[in-house]
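Fold sample X.
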Amino acid sequence: MSNKLTNYKLIVTIVTKGMAKKVVASSKKAGAEGGTTLLGRGTGIHEAKKLLGICIDPEKEIILTLIDSSKADSVLSAIVDSGHLNCSSCGIAFVLGTKQIAGVAHLLETMQRRSFDGK
């Protein structure tokens, strides 16, 4: 079975800590199967805050969402809305193309079934 799924995109979303659950829930409503959340820290010029003269790096959540290309626009739109990404300093999301994907046997089986059924 080939591991080349050329019709999938990766949506990378970076939001303030505590927003990932809401973002993943809205992306699932828009057609995503789920997402992977990682923790990170912001280092942008607008992010630096001080407390008693000590610089505090704001914590971020990074959500990785692998999505069928046909659903990418609607899922991205849901992410932008739920994460308030149109507001300044609330986060960012971007879409990357994928060349090869491994570890997604359920997607490969679905693709193989569709090919067999002629759909």
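Fold sample Y, listed below.
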Amino acid sequence: MSKTINILGIESSCDDTSAAIISNRKILANLIANQKVHAEYGGVVPELASRAHQKNIVPVVSQALKKANLSLNDIDAIAYTRGPGLLGSLLVGGSFAKGLSMTLQKPLIEVNHMQAHILAHFIDDNASSPNFPFLCLTVSGGHTQIVLVRDYLKMEIIGETLDDAAGEAFDKAAKMMGLPYPGGPLVDKYAQEGNAEKFSFNAGEMDNYNFSFSGLKTNILYFLRKEVDKNPNFIQENLNDLCASIQKCIIDTLFVKLEKAVKDLNINEVAIAGGVSANSGIRKRLLEKENQGWRVHIPKFEYCTDNAAMIAMVGFIKFQANDFSELSEAPQARLKF
């Protein structure tokens, strides 16, 4: 019988402090401390985020170990997010992981946050895991990418946003309509009651598999200004239809490129990942593609937004490959694959 491998995962790339324990591919604990303070500022404040991580990281790790019914001595390695993300936040998680590694004399494993979103599909309580090679549409507040995944640690970005991410477009559109931060989930909520054909928005065309969403934000801003000038109650009276129409435009933009990649590369294994993959419209659109022969993979909701379970999953894969890190490796806000 093969040895059980226990990995402690630590995630601190943005404003959520998370710790998880994975035993082989089974998650024993996955705890997240959210930071409510950013809502009043309409977005994440980096300095406040890093301070909150310092406050949260010890109790979150402690509670994760308690829930998993393990001690630090039972851990085989510590995996942490090296990047991409907010530098101050990454420093807190990385420094804590390095200190723990030195104290326990346990291996250290650095993890790329975006790769972790993709490899969350291989946690054993997901409905299904993709077969290699597969395409993954990775959508979050900071990233929008189409990734060709040839193996666990062999990935290539074949398309990405050239300006703003899809998640940022959702949040900025919500802010224009007076919705609180984070607005993306609220757009999704109201969209379910609206008519997606009521208004027409345009995100613009990009070459190959790339995206652009900055033009869409401008399009929405000018449209709302014009309509509110004519009717000050326009947004309140049309909120559901506005949300549905904006959401449809973003999803259409994503799927035009994803469909092109599937056709061009002749790969019908398709997954989604990242915080925006929790969006009900994206999930519904992807499931509809099963009728066209796609084999689709949608992560559980708890593995969509930032979480340490996905960091621990990569840690497990790298541990098996003896792919360990040096204490000297610094966090990188714009870490590439």
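Sample Y note: Strands lie at 6-11, 17-23, 26-33, 77-83, 108-112, 134-139, 144-151, 154-160, 269-273, 295-297.
Also: The chain has a mean pLDDT of 94.
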